[in-house]
Amino acid sequence: MSRGSNGSFGGTIGKTIAGSKPWWPDAPKPPAGAPNILVVLFDDVGFSDFGCYGSPIRTPTIDAIAAEGLRYSGFHTTAMCSTTRAALLTGRNHHSVGVGCLANFDSGYPGYRGKIAREAGTLAEMLRAHAYRNYMVGKWHVTPLTESGATGPFDGWPLGRGFDRFYGFLDAETDQFAPELVSDNTHIDPPGSHADGYHLTSDLVDQSIRFIADHIADRPDLPWLTWVALGACHAPHQAPADIIKSYDQTFAHGWDIEREQRMARQMAIGIVPRGTRMPARNDGVKAWEEHSADERRLFTRLQSAFAGMLDHADRHLARLIGFLDTAGTRDNTLILVLSDNGASQEGGPFGFVNAMGPYNFRPEPIAEKVRRIDDIGGPDSHSNFPHGWAMASNTPLRRYKQNTHGGGIRDPFVMSWPRRIAAKGELRHQFVHASDLVPTLLDLIGITAPPVIGGVAQMPIEGESFARSITDASAPSKPSSQYFEMFGHRGLWHGGWKAVSYHPPGTPFENDTWELFHLDGDFSEVDDLAAKQPEQLAEMIRLWWSEAEKHNVLPLDDRFAARFAENAARFQGARNHFVFHAGMGHVPTDVAPDVRSRSYTIEAHVEIEAAGAEGVLIAHGDATSGYSLYIKDGFLVHDLNIGGGHEIVRSCRQVLTGAHRLGVHVERVVREAAPARGSRTGVSAYTLLIDGEPVGSLQTPQGFNNFISWSGLDIGRDRSSPVSHYEAPFEFTGRLLRVTVAMHNDQKLDGDGVGNAEMARQ
Questions:
Q1: Is the Cβ–Cβ distance between 400 and 281 less than 8 Å?
Q2: pLDDT at 749
Q3: Distance between CA atoms of 412 and 341, rounded to whole angstroms?
Q4: Percentage of the chain lying above the pLDDT 70 cut
Q5: d(Cα 97, Cα 316) in Å, to the nearest integer?
Q6: What is the C-alpha separation between 465 and 736, in angstroms, rounded?
Q7: What are the two backbone dihedrals, phi and then psi, of residue 533, each rounded to the nearest 5 degrees?
Q8: DSSP code of 30?
Q9: How far apart are CA 628 and CA 716, in angstroms?
């Protein structure tokens, strides 16, 4: 580069040094007094589960935030994880932005692509233009999981949607002791294990503190957004055993008494109006006393695991809030604590110790659950509580997550901002929707949504600010309607009225029964006015169809079982051959070989020196479900792990020194044309191979009928929670060249079974 006559570098740079106006554009500046924003998003936590909403679960941190700010009793979500997150992030309705149901579901229709449209900028993208730094920690789940591999595409990952840093997981759920973790755009190993006290919640809080501390050290003059989306309390319900067991006595009285006690507290503190009536038990839920003593003991422990997970999360949230105090940033930090939908119904009527078996037709009878009661919440469990406790979580509301009755869509919401919110411990009863959060935050900051982001013209913000209600308890709810739809369940709120319809899967939509409630006087939706006020109901239904057409809800389609099977087939298409080379990273389950319900061959090319070798060649899954091919004590071993049950075949001779092809061939030898619900779809023969020669075989009715694992695949190691009987990571000590997976074209997925498993995952 040439120098100017004054000795400085020539041209524009020299002029800049000399004091002329820089050639680069002015850096954005935040609005005066712009707050830091901390969003703490819980998962599958019901309306009554926080202590300050009536629960006996210990949540002193959340309760303290509420005591210095506000609690809303009318906050509404969209009934599912992905969909609420899409609405919270964008300020639009979830169908409008292309996330009509799940991030791993694409029907091809505009409202159901499983990925937030570029025309719908996220809060992070909006704030970036105003000098905010944006940090995402925890669960993302708003981009297709088939785009979660090492090559992306990354445009739907957090860093592609306005966040500057990301530490968390992309899927709907993950094991809390052995999570699927991503740092920025790279899959990484968890930094610890259950054996050394690791838990994902603690890790996420550590990373949140680090991001904020780094920010303060580097740019204390700029505001930040930190979005902390915890795994708690989505299944698997996992927490330290001592915390879990401490709740056994609390919940030993059962869900019927618990509901009554929670509603009494809610009325005493004003969360629900006095005189609110308790709905009848949800369909299929029996009275607590109708269950056997063993069942009651089991169900109590399953509820204790849920409570322990929430309690544990609150303890670590205390560290994050304490850090804000220590750092002197609490006063101007707007803190929001909320849940993404109501408590989950995916645990079924009896709950699960390990749900991974039943979703592959390996039953988990009550006797087995009771035998494993002390495993609940531990590293080899995938626990979820039964319907009765989910019902209690949603007190005093009807139904659950997935449904558009109150139990699915009405959730706790706490807000605190010491500098600006003078109200201390007050309640707000206005109707608020997840899509209203972004416009409210923009209103409080004093900025508007940009018309263009990244060169893409933006769709209108559809939510409405509820900022006025923060300072005015008497402020009215918004005047516009708010529709709801999930898996064919429908609802509409308008002016204090609600029309709602439960849709039995597989039945004609025109056969659905609509109910009508006046929520202003019927908080718990028990007084159906449909017969008394047919004109009002007819108008509400007409409004629903109008809103549905406007927001890409149509066409209604409840054929999700078939769609899940179609999605899987469409993604991998005709591909039936995978090659994995040594040195590669972790492969998420949705981009790994789909060996469900089919024949396939796995072959590892290795070189073994005279000293011998041992370790994992390929492993997909974790301790709760998966498969592993490995060498141990000189023998080749394959373990088919279905729900913690191990079907193991061991070679009849040892693997000798030299170059070898070590593998397993799986042949589907029996298949039923139309398996009954809950039945197996076939029998498989597992044959071990050394250099193409059979060296051991096993025939079993167990197999990967509907899913393999929510944990992914590794080559040359089993990185965290071990699939088989060895200590992870059990890295291969020989030379591993490559592993090939060749799949036959005989796959025939059971759409209903796949759909049920995927729904449990959400």
A1: no
A2: 62
A3: 9
A4: 92
A5: 33
A6: 58
A7: -130, 65
A8: P
A9: 10
Given strand 713-715, what is the order of strands in its sheet?
645-654, 635-642, 625-632, 615-622, 713-715
Global pTM value: 0.94
Gap between the Cα atoms of 721 and 624, Å rounded: 9
**Each residue's pLDDT tens digit, 666-723:** 998 765 544 444 445 568 999 999 999 999 999 999 999 888 999 999 999 999 899 9
**Lowest-pLDDT range of 239-253, 589-603, 648-662:** 589-603
Is pLDDT above 70 for 194? yes
Taking the C-alpha atoms of residue 397 and residue 524, their distance in angstroms, rounded to an integer, is 5
Contact 396, 53 (CB under 8 A): no
Contact between 381 and 236 (Cβ < 8 Å): yes
Cis before 236? omega within 30: yes
d(CA 346, CA 710): 15
The pLDDT of 342-348, averaged and rounded, is: 97
Tell me whether strands 682-690 and 658-671 are parallel, antiparallel or unpaired. Answer: antiparallel
Q: Are 368 and 450 in contact (CB under 8 A)?
A: no
For residue 734, which amino acid is it? Answer: G
Distance CA 603, CA 617 (A): 9
State how far the Cα of 241 lies from the Cα of 308, in Å rounded to an integer. Answer: 8
- Cβ–Cβ < 8 Å for 28, 327: no
By residue count, the chain amounts to 762
- 641 has which bridge partners? 626, 646
In this structure, are residues 65 and 321 in contact, taking their beta carbons and an 8 Å threshold?
A: yes
Token pair 């708003």 is found at 142
Mean of per-residue pLDDT scores for the chain? 92
CA dist., res. 39 & res. 406, Å (int): 23
Per DSSP, the three-state class of 374 is: helix
Helix (H) or strand (E) holding 206: helix 200-218
The distance from CA 542 to its chain's CA centroid, rounded to whole angstroms, is: 33
Sheet containing 497-501: order of strands: 482-486, 489-494, 497-501, 514-518
Place of tokens 């609405």: 87
Cα 446 to Cα 134, 155, 436, 549, distances in angstroms: 18, 28, 15, 32
* Burial status of residue 626 (CB atoms within 10 A of its CB: 0-12, 13-18, 19 or more): buried
The structure tokens 């055993």 sit at 241
Between CA 163 and CA 89 the distance in angstroms is 11
- Are the C-beta atoms of 390 and 660 separated by less than 8 Å? no
Q: What residues contact 4, with CB distance under 8 A and at least 6 apart? A: 10, 11, 14
Dihedral (Cα; 154, 159, 161, 167), 10-degree rounding: 110
- With H, G, I as helix, E, B as strand and everything else as coil, classify residue 682: strand
For tokens 């066409």, the residue is 555
What DSSP designation does 112 have?
Answer: B
The C-alpha atoms of residue 253 and residue 11 are separated, in whole angstroms, by: 81
Q: Provide the pairing of β-strand 133-139 with 165-169.
A: parallel
- At residue 318, what are phi and psi to the nearest 5 degrees? -60, -35
In whole angstroms, what is the distance from residue 421 CA to residue 477 CA? Answer: 19
Q: How far apart are CA 672 and CA 599, in angstroms?
A: 15
**Residues 99, 114 contacting (CB under 8 angstroms):** yes
Helix (H) or strand (E) holding 729: none
Q: Are 619 and 717 in contact (CB under 8 A)?
A: yes
Give the type of residue at 494: H
What lies within 8 Å, CB to CB, of 691 at 6+ separation is 660, 661
d(CA 322, CA 521): 40
Give the span between the Cα atoms of 19 and 22, in whole angstroms: 8
Rounded CA-CA distance 133/225 in Å is 6
Other Cβ atoms within 10 Å of 10 Cβ, number: 13
**Measured between alpha carbons, how far is 65 from 421 in angstroms, rounded to an integer?**
12
Q: Which residues contact 694 (CB under 8 A, 6 or more apart)?
A: 687, 688
